[in-house]
TrEMBL record:
<dbReference type="Pfam" id="PF21953">
    <property type="entry name" value="NadN_nucleosid_C"/>
</dbReference>
<dbReference type="GO" id="GO:0009166">
    <property type="term" value="P:nucleotide catabolic process"/>
</dbReference>
<protein>
    <submittedName>
        <fullName>WGS project CCBQ000000000 data, contig 00016</fullName>
    </submittedName>
</protein>
<feature type="domain" description="Putative 5'-nucleotidase C-terminal">
    <location>
        <begin position="377"/>
        <end position="551"/>
    </location>
</feature>
<dbReference type="InterPro" id="IPR053828">
    <property type="entry name" value="Nucleosidase_C"/>
</dbReference>
<dbReference type="InterPro" id="IPR036907">
    <property type="entry name" value="5'-Nucleotdase_C_sf"/>
</dbReference>
<dbReference type="GO" id="GO:0016787">
    <property type="term" value="F:hydrolase activity"/>
</dbReference>
<feature type="signal peptide">
    <location>
        <begin position="1"/>
        <end position="24"/>
    </location>
</feature>
<dbReference type="InterPro" id="IPR014485">
    <property type="entry name" value="Pesterase_C1039"/>
</dbReference>
<dbReference type="GO" id="GO:0005829">
    <property type="term" value="C:cytosol"/>
</dbReference>
<dbReference type="InterPro" id="IPR006179">
    <property type="entry name" value="5_nucleotidase/apyrase"/>
</dbReference>
<dbReference type="Pfam" id="PF00149">
    <property type="entry name" value="Metallophos"/>
</dbReference>
<keyword id="KW-0732">Signal</keyword>
<dbReference type="GO" id="GO:0005576">
    <property type="term" value="C:extracellular region"/>
</dbReference>
<feature type="domain" description="Calcineurin-like phosphoesterase">
    <location>
        <begin position="55"/>
        <end position="285"/>
    </location>
</feature>
<dbReference type="InterPro" id="IPR004843">
    <property type="entry name" value="Calcineurin-like_PHP"/>
</dbReference>
<dbReference type="InterPro" id="IPR029052">
    <property type="entry name" value="Metallo-depent_PP-like"/>
</dbReference>
Length: 593
């Protein structure tokens, strides 16, 4: 058996010899940044994977990003390359150990490959399913729209190759006749190929309420009180299980709802001494959590930027050894970790074929249609709002002011115009390079309309701060707060990328990067334009999606301050007209060339 020899694990063995007893006491894992002072020598190369008896590769929240990130070298691999990687990794690296391939859902909404078809995911689902998953399940994005749910059920759950492997312990599908069936298997019990390890796998979706009428989600804590679960855990008792694998669309760090922690408490009660490996999803971060000294959880990022790796060794011993690595989704990483010396050696027939299908699909969906060039990169979270390289700054300063009201709508124009958007209208960074139809699907696929209200300046100027004081109701995918502090890496020779901190320390990313700083982004942002003849009136323009929030803000503010003798409702809101955010951005980019 191959020993786990990464620096972090090594630290466990040497800690009692060289370090203070307080550090030694945190076995079986230690925060690695405190261990070896020679670490900086390692910074220029890859951090190698630590193969154990049982190894996992994990994808999650791919959201249709199967065709690489064309303007980001760090993430230049395609789905077919992942297919090749898994084959080569199995052949060249895993050897006589076991490997399980797992996905935890959210396969739509985010990229043209999935979103440019009707229904959404029609062709991308087939491409996704080319990977031979051992365990897979669904996320909340498979449950918003009926068509998506039906497609997922017939194309993936009922797919011959995934029989027994598609697991959903707390979601049901609603048949045409209204009857309920499990959305896949309730569990999977199987033996691994090489060591014959006995695995019981369960999969839970977080407490998601907005499912459509073709599905039903039962909160996990209710589900595990049901009879089937009691019977299952009686059938498979501690003696029958070597590793309990709990994978699902649920965050592994959840300080608010603590769903996973409550689930773990219940499972630990039933299986006091079983090794448990969790795989999580949904919050789009790289994360690894130690729930106790025999239970760990891995979450593997988003958007095909990450392949998560985890391993467990000494499984039958009192303290199993674990490791994790977040692999950057690019060809250099894939070649390195699969011990391939060249692309030729790396690519498999199947991988090549999958990449060809992606290429054809991109062409067929016109995703390659180029509108212009983005002159430099604009970021959602990695630059502060005050920076010209922040995408919201770019939109409010450059793009939104180009909005023109409908030509037959020129009555009583105020001297000041405010245009407000919710930051959730944007869902990805805008990178320097070609601006294509695909870019639009990633940045802002939605088509919004504009409404406006004419307001006194004193009232209009307060709406932004009011809405930004509210809970983040309108933003999508705000990245989780970093809980543990790792040193900020500012080495200019390194490329920008993830420098993740997790329960095993600061060395989880396979490639040492320069840290990306993360800034908090408010709910809404606005542009303000004024002419000289200030008349104290404002045309307050906003994307119609946020109208209920704007009205609430106006009435709440006015109630406190009595600025006007009026209660605002939908009748005050008029159509402004003009191009959507998406089209304004396209026109702006075209105008630059
Ligand atoms: C997309 O899927 C549809 C329906 O299965 C099929 O007719 C079409 O050929 C597919 N397109 C590509 C490029 O695979
Ligand atoms: C792609 O573009 C061509 C030519 O402009 C057009 O005929 C076709 O309908 C487009 N296809 C899609 C899926 O938009
Ligand atoms: Zn997601
Ligand atoms: Zn999700």
């Amino acid at each position: 058996m191959v020993r786990l020899l990464n620096i972090e694990m090594l630290a466990v063995y040497i800690a009692p010899l060289f370090l203070s007893s307080t550090l030694a006491a945190v076995l079986p894992f230690s925060p690695d940044q405190n261990i070896l002072s020679t670490e900086s020598h390692e910074e220029s190369s890859f951090r190698d994977l630590q193969i154990g008896q049982l190894n996992f590769l994990h994808t999650t929240d791919t959201h249709g990003w199967l065709g690489s990130h064309s303007n980001q070298d760090n993430y230049n691999a395609k789905w077919g390359d992942l297919v090749s990687f898994v084959e080569r990794f199995r052949e060249n690296v895993v050897g006589e150990n076991d490997l399980l391939l797992i996905d935890t859902g959210d396969k739509h909404d985010g990229n043209g490959l999935s979103d440019a078809t009707v229904p959404n995911g029609l062709n991308s689902t087939q491409i996704f399913n080319e990977l031979d998953y051992d365990l897979l399940t669904l996320g909340n994005h498979e449950l918003y729209v009926e068509d998506n749910t039906v497609l997922e059920y017939y194309e993936t759950v009922l797919n011959e190759k995934f029989q027994g492997k598609y697991v959903s312990s707390n979601v049901e599908f609603v048949n045409d006749d209204g009857s309920l069936v499990p959305f896949g298997s309730k569990y999977r019990y199987f033996k691994t190929e090489k060591y014959g390890l006995r695995i019981l796998a369960l999969s839970f979706l977080f407490d998601f309420r907005r499912f459509n009428k073709r599905a039903q989600v039962t909160p996990v804590l209710q589900e595990i009180e049901k009879k089937w679960f009691q019977e299952l855990t009686e059938t498979y008792s501690m003696e029958d299980i070597d590793v309990l694998v709990v994978f699902g669309h649920m965050p592994i760090s959840d300080t608010e709802n603590r769903e996973i922690n409550q689930l773990h408490a219940k499972l630990r009660h039933i299986y006091p001494n079983t090794v448990i490996q969790y795989f999580g999803a949904h919050t789009h971060i790289r994360d690894f959590v130690a729930l106790d000294n025999k239970a760990y959880a891995l979450q593997s990022g988003r958007f095909c930027e990450t392949v998560g790796f985890a391993s467990i060794d000494d499984i039958t011993k009192e303290s199993p050894l674990v490791s994790r690595t977040y692999i950057d989704f690019n060809l250099n990483s894939f070649l390195h970790h699969s011990h391939s010396n060249s692309i030729k050696e790396f690519e498999t027939d199947r991988g090549t074929e999958v990449n060809e299908r992606i290429h054809e699909l991109r062409k067929e969906l016109n995703l390659t249609t180029k509108f212009g060039n983005v002159p430099s990169s604009f970021y959602m979270y990695n630059k502060p709002l005050s920076s010209p390289h922040n995408i919201y700054n770019f939109l409010t300063k450059r793009v939104l002011p180009t909005l023109k009201r409908d030509s037959d709508n020129t009555a009583d124009v105020a001297s000041t115009r405010i245009i407000m958007i919710n930051t959730g209208a944007i869902r990805y960074d805008l990178y320097e390079g070609p601006f294509t139809s695909d870019t639009e699907y990633t940045i802002s696929p939605f088509s919004n309309t504009w409404n406006y209200i004419q307001l006194p300046m004193a009232l209009a100027m307060q709406v932004e701060s009011y809405l930004n004081g509210m809970e983040p109701i309108m933003t999508l995918n705000l990245p989780g707060e970093q809980r543990r502090q790792c040193p900020l890496i500012e080495d200019k020779t390194l490329s920008r990328g993830y420098t993740t901190s997790d329960d095993l320390g600061c060395k989880g990313d396979d490639t040492p990067h320069r840290s990306e700083r993360q800034y908090r982004i408010p709910n809404v942002v606005q542009s303000i334009e004024s002419t000289n003849n200030a008349d104290e009136l404002v045309d307050f323009v906003y994307c119609s999606f946020i109208q209920p929030f704007v009205l609430e803000a106006l009435n709440d503010l006015n109630e406190d301050q009595n600025i006007v003798d009026h209660t605002f409702d939908d009748k005050d809101c008029k159509i402004y007209g003009g191009l959507s955010i998406k089209d304004l951005l396209r026109e702006y980019i075209i105008s630059l060339n």
